[in-house]
Amino acid sequence: xxxxxxxxxxxxxxxxxxxxxxxxxxxxxxxxxxxxxxxxxxxxxxxxxxxxxxxxxxxxxxxxxxxxxxxxxxxxxxxxxxxxxxxxxxxxxxxxxxxxxxxxxxxxxxxxxxxxxxxxxxxxxxxxxxxxxxxxxxxxxxxxxxxxxxxxxxxxxxxxxxxxxxxxxxxxxxxxxxxxxxxxxxxxxxxxxxxxxxxxxxxxxxxxxxxxxxxxxxxxxxxxxxxxxxxxxxxxxxxxxxxxxxxxxxxxxxxxxxxxxxxxxxxxxxxxxxxxxxxx
Amino acid sequence: xxxxxxxxxxxxxxxxxxxxxxxxxxxxxxxxxxxxxxxxxxxxxxxxxxxxxxxxxxxxxxxxxxxxxxxxxxxxxxxxxxxxxxxxxxxxxxxxxxxxxxxxxxxxxxxxxxxxxxxxxxxxxxxxxxxxxxxxxxxxxxxxxxxxxxxxxxxxxxxxxxxxxxxxxxxxxxxxxxxxxxxxxxxxxxxxxxxxxxxxxxxxxxxxxxxxxxxxxxxxxxxxxxxxxxxxxxxxxxxxxxxxxxxxxxxxxxxxxxxxxxxxxxxxxxxxxxxxxxxxxxxxxxxxxxxxxxxxxxxxxxxxxxxxxxxxxxxxxxxxxxxxxxxxxxxxxxxxxxxxxxxxxxxxxxxxxxxxxxxxxxxxxxxxxxxxxxxxxxxxxxxxxxxxxxxxxxxxxxxxxxxxxxxxxxxxxxxxx
Lengths: 280, 417
Hints:
The complex is a heterodimer of chains A (about 280) and B (about 425).
Chain A: E1 3-12, E2 15-25, E3 30-35, H1 41-49, E4 56-61, E5 74-77, H2 89-99, H3 104-117, H4 133-145, E6 151-155, H5 163-178, E7 182-187, H6 190-196, E8 199-204, E9 207-213, H7 214-221, E10 223-229, E11 243-248, E12 252-258, H8 260-279
Parallel strand pairs in A: 3-7, 3-8, 5-6, 6-7
Antiparallel strand pairs in A: 1-2, 1-4, 8-9, 10-12, 11-12
Chain B: H1 3-17, H2 19-36, H3 38-45, E1 52-58, H4 64-74, E2 78-82, H5 87-96, E3 101-107, E4 113-119, H6 125-146, H7 151-158, H8 175-212, H9 216-222, H10 225-257, H11 259-263, H12 266-269, H13 277-302, H14 311-334, H15 339-344, H16 351-361, H17 366-394, H18 405-414
Parallel strand pairs in B: 1-2, 1-3
Antiparallel strand pairs in B: 3-4
């Protein structure tokens, strides 16, 4: 059950939203899409789901086209959250689950266990419009996963959530992965992708800039992020050879450096300076 | 269960449970009940049981008795009482409300009756007209007596002339039939007109609501837009039938109970006593086809807007089409065989109302009606295919513009270039 994108291109008139994108996403894997706003992440997802037809190329899952006959195997959390505001949480989820081919009783059981997991059991009979935005987002997430999809597509799942809820959702995503779902998700924050994905792809203006396993990409890139906190000024590190980019903060410095040796050198010098500082 | 049916029943049940739907249904039922019970209601508010008391002052001494007889033949609910007092006293009694009015009868120099009528206000024209008619007849008989006309001679003078109408065409409707058809067609046209506007609006709103709340993206990732669109149209269609069935049942029940009193009123003139089955069947066919035609149009127009506020603006041209069709049909009621009506009955957007009007009022050959139905079905199919494509792209489009250019844009979204 491999999700394959082969030379996928999407054009809207003159504008190319996605350009020659080829990816292979293995089963039971988590795959991250990184990219700025308008990089083509949502368009790619819409093509995977069959909401849009690709202008060129082929998308297949388990060597089959994804269409409405496979909709019960696919879960989707759209970027723009949306539920029926006037409908109760329970009716809402049951309706959406039934559209994905689930039985009503089964959907209710599943919904209850999810609500319990997110600690929002009380909201089962509330209208969606009465819920806070964060809780609405959890309901939206439940709507995407309630029918136990084999392929789960999450478009910016963590945006607009507080850190506690982000952790809760991350854990849920990881459980789903362990249970055997293939998960594709997008974010514009590296840390989320770094933390959860083995494979990733960075999109820029519709074209894949890098793609592969996280480790390979990092090695290939050969750059390291260093965060140093110190009681004394360490601005001098900014001008050290090999430092590509740096940002001085209240507590110290964040910088990006090239090459292992250089990093070692800078640490050595830092230690010496620290020693002097403590002696004085 | 198939997802088509899930959406259909979801739409149907959700709409059925909304407050606005229940309120409109109950209100309309109340209005239907009020109309069919109109006579009872009028009686209820009439404290004298519909009888009006009028005081008569007769200065000549010979007019009261014949006048009373004449008025009785005009309207037996008017009660005349001989009053023998002064003018002022009588006027006071009228002001107090004891009498509806006071009429002073006298003879003029030619020995013919004349009268002065006084009432609190002369707004009650029906009473005043009846009194006048009575006096007119009295005057006529007095004048006839003066020129020595015998009563049977007088009758001859007033006998209405015989004037019979025959339609030479085979199957043409007789006058009674035509009147009856006119009433029925009139009412059914109204039903079609209101239903099409109301339910098409409802569909456009429903689509726009789903789109503006952004639930649409999940929906179309689970079920194909085309299936969704038709499930919605059929669901609302079912709702409309439920509502109309409720009105008809209540109306029919209440109508048959009040049949006797209503027969002589408006309903009698337009003859609802025996309704031809053919007309009803055509009404149902054209109602359903008309509904589908405009519902499909409304669904895809609704899919183009991203905010509910813009729905009305988007479907105004469609509403105007319905209004135009209705206006033409109203004109056609008086002149159903005009060639203008014949031509417009083949224009798809007008067919549901105008072809129905022709079927109901004229004896057109069956093939003409069937042609109309075929034209409608063809138009609906074309609209459905085109609409479904627009719908598919339209539901993914969000933006502040909401012009008809968006149709092109929506189509482009679904194209594979």
